[in-house]
Amino acid sequence: MPRHCTEYGPLISGLAPSGEPLFIAGTVWNQDTFSPRFDEIVLFSAPLEVVLERIATRDTNPFGKTAEQRERIVADTAEAEPLLRSSATVEIDTRRPLAEVVDRLAAFAGPPPPVGG
To answer: What's the structural domain count of the chain?
Structure first.
């Protein structure tokens, strides 16, 4: 059963701006309720063929190995990706090297704090 923002509402609403970077990952049907609280909404993307290949070759999670599960992934992607893309303010192509993907995301947090500080 999908979780809804109503379950996380008090947690998200209780987050006072602290000046510290905060990253939240997830997708729920009514996430637009909280979108204004965030500076950026990042979409991590890859073509469906790449996603399916990654799922087929991973050994850390069995989901996506059966034809039925792969059909579900294709259908879910067709339904959800346009919605996610329309609300994203930034897109990061995950076909890029991992270090580049991480650097692009980390750049939103600003420079790292000084050593020892």
So the answer is: 1
Is the CB of residue 4 less than 8 Å from the CB of residue 30? yes
pTM of the model: 0.77
- Backbone φ and ψ for 93, nearest 5 degrees, come out as -80, 115
d(CA 55, CA 28) in angstroms, rounded, equals 22
Domain span including residue 49: 43-109
Q: pLDDT tens for the chain, 117 residues: list them.
A: 344 445 666 666 666 667 677 787 877 777 777 788 788 899 999 999 999 999 999 999 999 999 999 999 999 999 999 989 998 999 999 999 999 999 999 998 888 777 775
